[in-house]
Automatic annotation (TrEMBL):
Stretches that traverse the bilayer: 29-49, 91-108, 128-154, 166-186, 206-225, 245-269, 275-292, 304-323, 329-352, 364-389, 401-422
Signal peptide region: 1-20
Protein species of origin: Thiobaca trueperi
Keywords: Membrane, Signal, Transmembrane, Transmembrane helix
Protein name: Sodium/proton antiporter (NhaD family)
GO terms assigned for molecular function: antiporter activity
Length: 457
């Protein structure tokens, strides 16, 4: 089955699924709205046809928009006027996201060209502990670099220090470290950046590091031992390797511009935040200002734009979903989304959650960010690293040798839940209100440890 067949299937599904329905009425198949079915087909196409992801995503968007134009309308109205109203509501978020994705691609290259990745192997310990230390470095890098960049930098260092003999279990750990490190930082992962743009404060996702830190130890130690047995570390660093402090300062300046702009706009000019993409513009002003000192790698932009367009297409698809039909936000829905993100891209899952609102954003950031590490195509970092190491493009081998990643996900989530509990918070863009307690089907506790202490009394 060639990839165009998926496009034809998605397009053909639209009229057949809705043919019997009256105009402007919601249609469901076995209780599932047709929009979700079209979206699921789109995500399946993305999962299985990695060389044609943009074409599949654009086809899915076309099918969803066509269906809503013809049958259900949009939240802002019916027809083209409704579509225009929807895009008017979303354009600031989409523009901010595009600016950040393109800007962070240049920022990551600035960091790589600063020489820091070439110096790092000099400070890695010998033995399996050196492999663990490299995973910690990747974790830290991902807290302020995009997780894709952190994974690629980590893969480059690993290829050097392990003489290009990198165990698949360790490759899975590199992806897991980059995703875990970005889960608690609004500049470390596209999913957390989306939350930030939507009005979620940086400190609302920071507690994801409780789970991520535990997970790092759970998967990091066995992965480092796997790698040491497969190919021990060799710490050769060129004698002429130096750090370009100017480039490193540029990286810090761009990040400072993003954080400072977000803080100022959301504290002093909150009424204007939805009318102009301040965050994306601030990043690009900083990049252009710094270009007088060091030119960015402009040649990266065409490929980065293609990848960004793919992600933005999925975000738009997610924004068109009838989120009022989703199950209520809860800790077990967040846990489930983590497993779902192993096979579906976490970008649209996050977009759906933001639209719905009412999640514990730190818990969700960990779930959708780290959960995608369980299979190689479950996250952008995994796809990028697998392009560097083609032997990783095997679901069976990834699951067999990277078993510690799935184990780490469950244990990390459990530690976060049983220490801090479920702390839901609504977003301004979400349709749901903050949940004061868990749904009736779940235990009505805010912090499980508090409940245990009360029982012991």
């Amino acid at each position: 089955m060639r990839w165009p067949a998926v496009i034809v299937l998605i397009l053909l599904l639209t009229p057949f699924a809705a043919a019997a329905a009256p105009p402007m009425h919601e249609i469901a198949v076995f209780g599932i709205p047709v929009e979700f079915i079209l979206f699921a087909f789109t995500l399946l196409g993305v999962a299985f046809f990695h060389n044609h992801t943009l074409a599949v995503a654009l086809t899915g968007l076309t099918a969803i928009v066509s269906y809503k134009l013809e049958f259900t309308g949009f939240h802002t109205g019916a027809g083209l006027a409704g579509l225009a109203g929807h895009l008017e509501h979303e354009w600031v978020i989409l523009t901010n996201l595009l600016g950040l994705l393109l800007g962070f691609a240049l920022l990551a290259r600035h960091f790589e060209d600063s020489g820091v990745p070439h110096i790092l192997p000099r400070y890695l310990p010998n033995g399996w502990f050196g492999g663990l230390a490299l995973l910690v470095v990747i974790f830290v890098l991902s807290s302020f670099l995009d997780n894709i960049a952190a994974a690629l930098i980590g893969g480059t260092i690993a290829a050097s220090v392990f003489r290009y003999r990198v165990h698949i279990g360790y490759l899975a750990a590199i992806v897991a470290a980059s995703n875990a490190g970005g889960s608690g930082s609004v500049v470390g992962d596209t999913t957390t950046t989306m939350m930030w743009i939507s009005g979620i404060a940086p400190h609302e996702v920071f507690h994801a590091y409780v789970a991520a830190g535990v997970a790092l130890l759970i998967f990091g130690i066995p992965a480092a031992i796997q790698q040491h047995r497969f190919s021990p570390i060799v710490r050769d660093v060129p004698q002429d390797a130096r750090i370009d402090w100017t480039r490193l300062g540029i990286v810090a300046g761009i990040l400072f511009a993003a954080v400072a702009t977000n803080v100022v706009v959301n504290s002093a000019f909150k009424s204007l935040a939805d009318s102009f993409p301040f965050l994306g513009v601030a990043v690009w002003v900083a990049i252009l200002f710094a270009a007088r000192k060091r030119q960015p790698e402009w040649s990266l932009l065409p490929e980065a734009f293609k990848g960004s367009l793919f992600l933005l297409t999925l975000v738009v698809c997610a924004s068109l979903m009838p989120v009022e039909k989703l199950p209520e936000a809860s800790w077990y829905s967040a846990l489930t989304l983590g497993f779902v993100s192993a096979v579906f891209d976490n970008i649209p899952l996050t977009a759906l959650a933001i639209e719905q609102g009412g999640f514990d954003w730190g818990m969700l950031a960990y779930a959708v960010g780290f959960g995608g590490s369980m299979i190689w195509f479950g996250s952008s970092a995994g796809v990028a690293l697998s392009n560097m190491f083609p032997q990783a493009k095997s679901v069976g081998a990834w699951l067999r040798h990277g078993w510690h990643v799935a184990l780490a996900y469950v244990i990390g989530f459990a530690v976060l839940f049983f220490t801090l509990g479920w702390q839901p918070l609504a977003t301004e863009s979400g349709t749901a209100q903050a949940i004061e307690s868990l749904p009736a089907a779940a235990p009505q506790i805010e912090n499980p440890l508090m409940a245990v202490r009360e029982t012991l009394r």
